[in-house]
Amino acid sequence: MTQTTGTPFREMMQSLAPGEGGLAIDLPGDWLQGRTAYGGLTGALCVEAAARLHPGLPPLRNAHFALAGPASGRLVVKAEVVRQGKSAVVIEASVTGEAGPAARALLTYGAGRDSRIGAAGAAPPAVPAPEACSAFFAADRKPSFAHHFDVRLAGGARPMTPGAEPRIAVWIRHGDGETPAGLPALVALADAVPSPALVLFPEFAPFSTMTWSLDLTSAAPESASGWWLLDSVIDAADGGYASQDMSLWNDAGELVARARQMVAVFI
User: Fold this and answer.
1) CA-to-CA distance for 194 and 212, rounded, in angstroms?
2) What is the per-residue pLDDT for 139?
3) How many other CB atoms are found less than 10 A from the CB of residue 5?
4) Cα 240 to Cα 67, 162, 163, 226, 261, distances in angstroms
5) Among residues 69, 33, 71, 29, which one has the least CA distance to residue 49?
6) Distance of CA 95 to CAs 65, 204, 257, Å?
7) Could you tell me if 255 and 122 are in contact, meaning their C-beta atoms sit under 8 angstroms apart?
8) CA geometry: angle at 207 spanning 202 and 212, to 5°?
9) pTM of the predicted protein model
């Protein structure tokens, strides 16, 4: 594991405590991307709050996040049941920061059932093992939160490589070996890599995730080594917005999640 500094993921999530009508946390600065929590952490807070405020939920099947504004300082996370049926539960979660509304989420949970329908998930791309891959983040281009992750470039291109396919594939794991397994930790790392739109940038410029929809294809995702393979590609970009497709596999090559993102680019 990499040597991390600042507040470990497990300690940060443990500091999420009852308050202000939901759960509250004073977000450490080492978990920011610029002036806000990055999208994966915001999503992880929503998933964690739903689990704590509504224990006994079935497996999470889909999460849709609308990132409305900066999430920084003291955050309040709420989660309310929209509807509960025999096998499915829909929860609406919200994150409010010092600057106002930061995110809204719809989380859909569903119990498993016997079914005659089955299909294998897409196979992962052929990439080198994590140990054979170089670090993804350059030391002078590493956002604060990224110090908590070990990220290796496995395929595609690096940011600011105009002319290359707008695709980034990485091996990624939490840098702290004591990070507990579970959905919040998985959601946190599933959006810890910048948009592949940055591959097309001639120089660095701001970008921001607007929406993120995550389909969990496994009821209980696990990776024995802690490594996950994340592949993301831009399929359309125009008018200052880019649409990207994302896939996440565990270290056994099993597809555990598919995702879509809409990203605003300011270049």
Assistant:
1) 13
2) 80
3) 10
4) 17, 16, 18, 35, 14
5) 71
6) 10, 29, 23
7) yes
8) 130
9) 0.94
